[in-house]
Design brief:
- There is one protein chain.
- The protein is 33% helix and 25% strand.
- It is an alpha/beta fold.
- The chain has one domain: 3-Layer(aba) Sandwich (Rossmann fold), CATH 3.40.50.
- The strands form two sheets. Strands 3-2-1-4-5-9-8 form a seven-stranded mixed beta sheet. Strands 6-7 form a two-stranded antiparallel ribbon.
- Strand 4, helix 5 and strand 5 form a beta-alpha-beta unit.
- It is globular.
């Protein structure tokens, strides 16, 4: 899938609905006041990055893929800085950003616990992670190993992705200096049709059975 094809998916009815569901849930863990600085780790083509910028946040997008970044830089949205870099070794000083996001990106980072530690290092106040949820209908449909290749999980855009569970995320967060860690989920029925939208409206976000597992945490201030 090319960067243009990936980004265009968010313009389809299903993609637009899923993207907005995910964005609304992510914003519940953030300070969205204009001018607040945000680093978007694994920004890819910049769909979420542009969405943050349109809401007035001062956004920097980081990704390891130069082709995705080239596509992102060609978008008309002004005021976004894009940086090529590795989520496991973020090229920023400690506490460089008010808040940090990593949305549907850590599932493709092999040492994702190290990436989370880096995210916590460069965040001044809080971070939000958007992960693929192992306990979801989408995993049953797209995440399980294919029959002819039991060594590789996932199909299509999800091929090779890691699907997280709350327990393993909690283990990764335990050594970090965090407070007010919360877990929520969205996109319970990923088809995007009328049934999916009705289920989304009725089911509570604290029911961790949605395809998009959102983890938010505050950074504990350093001891004097």
């Amino acid at each position: 899938m090319t960067p243009a094809e990936y980004d265009a998916w968010y313009d389809t009815p299903r993609g637009r609905w899923i993207g907005e569901c995910e964005y609304r849930l992510v914003c519940r863990g953030f300070d969205t006041r204009p001018g607040t600085t945000l680093l978007d780790v694994g920004c890819g083509t910049g769909w979420f990055t542009r969405r943050f910028a349109r809401d007035g946040l001062a956004v920097t997008g980081l990704d390891v893929d130069p082709q995705a970044l080239a596509f992102a830089r060609e978008r008309p949205d002004a005021g976004i800085a894009y940086v090529e870099g590795d989520a496991r070794r973020l090229p920023f000083a400690d506490r460089s950003f008010d808040q940090v996001s990593a949305l549907a990106s850590l599932c493709f980072v092999d040492d994702w616990p190290r990436a989370i530690a880096e995210i916590a290092r460069v965040a001044r106040h809080r971070f939000v992670l958007g992960l693929l949820n192992r306990h979801s209908l989408l995993w049953r449909d797209k995440g399980r190993p294919v029959r002819h290749d039991r060594q590789t999980s996932g199909q299509g855009a999800y091929r090779g992705a890691h699907w997280h569970t709350r327990d393993e995320v909690e283990r990764a967060l335990r050594p970090l200096a965090l407070a007010r860690v919360s877990y929520r989920s969205a996109v319970f029925v990923p088809s995007g049709g009328a049934l999916a939208q009705a289920a989304e409206a009725m089911l509570p976000t604290r029911l961790l059975l949605g395809a998009f597992l959102v983890v938010s945490a505050e950074i504990r201030p350093p001891r004097p």
